[in-house]
C-alpha cells in the first residue's frame, strides 16, 4: 500500500512520526486490508445469494404463468369436444345460453363460436356476427385442427370489437414514474390477453367450426395476487421485506401488487428505462436490483412473448432489498467493530509503553508549531527525561532564546527603515501630484493664451469692417431719407445682422479675455433665475417634446452676475434638450448647500433622461472646442459656463453614464470667492474643480 506523499515526507523527517508508524503500522495497514477483503467478499456473496433467490422466484412465477395460459387452452379445448356443444349447435337459442354459462364457469372474458372460415357465428359478449377472427395465429392453427393458447396484445379497436366493456377495463391512466423512459401518451388502452382456440369436429372428425375464448389480464388482480402468494409464501422473507409480482404490457404495469401511497396499487406506473432496454429491447432476463416505483427491489424480469415471437410485455417478481442490505451491513459492521476494538486495544497498550519516548518529542513538536504560528515565547521547558532527548530539549530552548534576541534587533531596524521609506514615498507622491497639476495648468494656460491671441485677432479684424458697414448703413439711411422707404425692411435686416456679428465678436472676446467682461454682481434668487431661463428656452422644450419637472427648494440667495448665471443655466438646459432627441424628462432642482459639509450657498441641478455621456468623454467635457455634436455647436458652451461659475468660486459637477442620462450640478457660494485671481484671468483653477463623477 503506497503512503500519501505528505505522510511519507513527514515520516522521513520526524522521529516521532517514525515511532508512531512502527506502532500503528499493523492497524493502519492490516485492518483496512482485512476489512476491504471482508466487505468485498460479503458484497459478492450477498449479490450471488440475492440473484439466485430471485432467479428461483422467477422460475416459479414463469411456471404458474404458463399453467394459467395452458389452463385457458385446456378449458376451451374441452368445451370444443364436449357433447353439450354438439347438441347446442343444433338449437341456436341453446347455443347462446351454453356459451354464456361456460364463459362464466371457465372464468373467460369472451367466448366465440366461429365458422370454418374463422368468422363469428355466435358470441357470448354480443360480438358482431360475421366478424373475421382468422388473422389471429391461434385461430389460424385451430382452423388447421390444432388447438392452442398464447399471450396476445390487443389494441383498443380489437377490444372494442369484442366488447366495449372490455375496452374500458383495459384503459389505464399512465402515472409519471421516476427513472422511466419518456412516454407522451396519457393512457394505456391496449390489452394483454390469454387467447385460446380449439377446433370443433363433427362425428366424422371433420372441421365444422372453431371455439375461441380469452381472458383479459389488465387489472386482473386475482391472477397477480395468486402468483405472489405462490412465489412468496408467508414467512419466506425476513421481517420488513415484502414480495411483489407484476405483469406488464410493454413497460406499463397492468396487474400488480406493488403499492403506491396509502395502499393504492401502482397500476399505470412504468418500469425503469434500463430494465425496459435490457428486457424488451434485447430480450434478456433481468436478475439484479432495480428501482421499482419508489424503492429498490431485488428484481427479476423476463419478456412475455406473443404467438408471433414478438416481445409484448414483461413478467416480474421481486422483494424489497432494504431489510436484506441492512442485515448484511449490520453483520459486516459488527465484525468490523470487533476487529477495530481489538486493534485499538493493542495499539493503546503499545502507545502506553512508548509514552516515555513520545513525551519529549511531542513537547518539542508543539514548540515548533507555536513558533510557526507566531508565538515567539514558546519553549519546551523542563522535561522529566534526562537522556539524550532531555538534553536536546534544553539545547533547543537556548537556541530559541538566542534567536529571539536577534529577531528583536532586526525588527527594530526594520521598523525604523519602514518609517523612513514611508515618509520618502509620501513626499515623492505629493511632489509628483503637484508637478502633474502644474503641468496641467501650464498646458491649459498655453492653450488658452494661444486661443486668446487668435480670437482677439479675428475679433479685431471682424470689428473694423463691421463698423464700416454700420457707418455706411446709417449714412445711406440719412442720405436717402424718405426714398429709402421701399428698402427699409432690407436695411433693417442688414442692421440686425451687423448687430449679431458684434454679439458673436463680443462672445469670442469674452472667452478669450473673460477678466475684461466681469459683470455687475447682484443678489440673485436662483429659483426666479431658473424660471426666467425656462421662459427663454420654452421653444426648444416644446419642439423636442420634453416634460419639465421642477423641485425648487432653495431658500438662500447668491451674489453673482444675473445674465452670466442665466447664460450658464440656458446652456445646460439646451444641452439637456439636445441629449433627448426623442423626448424625455428634464428635472430642475435647487437646494441649499449643507453648511456642515460645505460653504454656505446654493446647488442647482439640471438632470435629463437622455443618452448619457461616455466614460472616455467625461474628462474632456469642459475643454475648449470639445464637442460630441459633430454637425452643430462650437464646443465653447460648457467651457464658458465652467469659466463663468469658477470666476465666482463655484464649480460644476457631472454625474452620468451611457444609457441613464446626465445630471449637471452647479454649486454657487452665497458670497463670491475671487481667490487665485479668477476674475483677472478668467480661467479659474484648471485642475478640474468641475468633478466629472
Keywords, please?
19 strands, disordered C terminus, five-stranded antiparallel beta sheet, 18% strand, 18 helices, alpha+beta, flat, 693 residues
Element layout with pairings:
Blueprint: H1 5-13, H2 15-80, H3 83-88, H4 92-106, E1 110-114, E2 120-123, H5 137-143, E3 148-154, H6 156-162, H7 164-170, E4 172-173, E5 187-188, E6 191-201, E7 207-216, H8 221-231, E8 243-249, E9 252-256, H9 273-281, E10 286-292, E11 295-305, E12 311-320, H10 322-372, H11 388-480, H12 488-512, E13 522-524, H13 526-536, H14 538-544, E14 546-552, E15 558-560, H15 562-578, E16 584-592, E17 601-608, H16 615-618, H17 637-647, E18 651-656, E19 662-669, H18 678-681
Parallel strand pairs: 14-16
Antiparallel strand pairs: 1-2, 1-7, 3-6, 4-5, 6-7, 8-9, 8-12, 10-11, 11-12, 13-15, 16-17, 17-19, 18-19
- Please report the distance between the alpha carbons of the first and last residues: 65 Å
Percentage of residues in strands: 15-25%
SS summary, helix count = 18
- Given as residue ranges, the uncertain stretches (5+ residues, pLDDT < 50) are 676-693
- Gyration radius (Cα, Å) is 53 Å
Total number of strands: 19
Overall 3D geometry?
Answer: flat
Task: Compose a concise summary of this entry.
By secondary structure, the chain is of the alpha+beta class.
Describe it for me?
This protein has 693 residues and is α+β, with helices and mostly antiparallel strands. It has 18 helices and 19 strands. The strands form five sheets. A five-stranded antiparallel beta sheet has the order 2-1-7-6-3, sandwiched between helices. Strands 9-8-12-11-10 form a five-stranded antiparallel beta sheet. It has a five-stranded mixed beta sheet with strand order 14-16-17-19-18. Helix 1 (5-13) packs antiparallel against helix 2 (15-80), helix 10 (322-372) packs across helix 11 and helix 15 runs antiparallel to helix 17. The radius of gyration is 53 Å and the shape is flat. The two termini are 65 Å apart. The relative contact order is 0.06.
